[in-house]
TrEMBL record:
Protein source organism: Ruania alkalisoli
SMART domains in alphabetical order: TGc (SM00460)
Domain Transglutaminase-like: 160-220
Domain of life: Bacteria
InterPro entries assigned to the protein according to its UniProt record, in alphabetical order: Papain-like_cys_pep_sf, Transglutaminase-like
Pfam families: Transglut_core
Protein name per the record: Transglutaminase family protein
Amino acid sequence: MRRTVSAELHVTAGIGTTEVALQVALARVPGLRVSESLEIRQDGRLLEPAEEPTAHGGRMHLVTLDRAAEQPGEVSVRYDASVEDEAAGAVAEVPTTTADLMAYRRPSRYAQSDELFVTARRELGGRQGLALVHAVGDWVASRVRYVPGSSRVTDGAVATLLQGQGVCRDYAHLVVALLRALDVPARLAAVYAPGLRPMDFHAVAEAWVQGQWYAVDATRMAPRSAMARISTGRDAADTAFLSAYGAGIQMGPQTVTATVDGNLPVESADTAVQMP
């Protein structure tokens, strides 16, 4: 399957020096062919980012913005890529260590599994394997409404459960927290998601079952088999598409696109899906 994706971001840099970390580029994993371009400009001047590897083939691009008081500090980011499976039906694998699995069992900033231990055991205990994973996805889908703008960037899984609404990252955090509370290693993946409406960066959970990672998207908004991985981590703190340190930035317009050649795959929530 061939996917074509893009992201365009516009920001205004604060006066002084700002370090920016971008995670918009597709992860490089075995079994995928990626063709891409990344262009970052400040006031029309091309900047050269440094690339650093992250988990599961992800890549972070780092750039420093310098702005004097008299300069406008307008910054644009443009990423374009196509990605294609090298062999039909092949699932790429990046090694998962014992340390990874331990980290993905623990509570984290947005996935407070320790606070949801009782709820998870009461509502979802007694199941095993993929049956448990599907049950957690169904449970979250039935209790949370997708409402754009309904959550704050500081909200975690507990807030999502109490409010009963959120956006994709809120769904993913709740799924991850419940799985961890049930002793299943779980993590968050930021992805490009063909078929998503409204189009944006998307977040899904992944659960470790029988020696493999399986995608869980309780929003049911896009086919998992068409998704293209960007970054992977404990929660959104590890996978943010943009982080800024120092003088800071002001976000402007952003545009994300993701398409596939031909028809979108048919999605079934009960199907086990592995993402490259």
